[in-house]
């Protein structure tokens, strides 16, 4: 434990960890060898100083090495947010994932219970009739038969049990809020990922580049959402061809109307599941528009669309043709089969 104490001392003094030091630190933590006091001190020292790309990359590499993997197609995409944006919105990435699956793109959706709203992806999908407590082989079968499978984070990242109690006691964001979305059990090379704070857009893209991701959009809405928003501009950092490019997009770029935050507010898992089903049934709402926007970006990441307007058209067809609803029905059947 001397090595970990040295690492705690280094970050407490404001020092940054190398990639190898970060891997060592998180191996100690995720092996259960750090005491609660050491873990709390380490996490808060990082938070106060500001986590670095090396630290995030090293932590993700260690999480990936310890996770229970899922076999997915090489072109699979994950559509996921960090949570923690306190927006209380509908389940946008969940609905987006179903719409993208309806466009014949394999989706390996990673998610968890709610962090900042009444209904996380896990609660909403369970309410829709999907069995989320299934193993890797069954999830792979779901992706093959329905074009989408859901990976419930606690079942794939058992090592996180060592940090759960301390995170709850701290009651504030730590580096672990970023790690889940970057630690896909399916090892996806394509990601559409929302982050809870503007300052993380470029660093998360840099970390994914270091981790071998082929293509990704990292996004943060000007209203604070960990999604592409329709209430204003959205910051984007695109990773493509080994290069990073930052830019801003608005609903106008996708040919979509602006919305007000009140029109995107969700509720209980039952309420969110009902609203999601209504979108898939063709209801013309602000929820549909924001899903079309996020789906369009996801289709660019998947190399299915070249522009946001093309992506919106494909996503709208996925809904209006019934393909997205069909993906949901197939996922319900496959996960319970």
UniProtKB/TrEMBL annotation:
EC number(s) given by UniProt: 2.4.2.18
Glycosyl transferase family domain residues: 75-324
Keyword Transport among UniProt keywords: no
Pathway: Amino-acid biosynthesis; L-tryptophan biosynthesis; L-tryptophan from chorismate: step 2/5
Sites where the protein binds anthranilate 1: 81, 112
Cofactor (UniProt): Mg(2+)
Residues annotated to bind anthranilate 2: 167
Top class in the EC scheme: transferase
Sequence similarity: Belongs to the anthranilate phosphoribosyltransferase family.
Protein name (Swiss-Prot/TrEMBL): Anthranilate phosphoribosyltransferase
Native source species: Roseibium denhamense
Gene encoding the protein: trpD
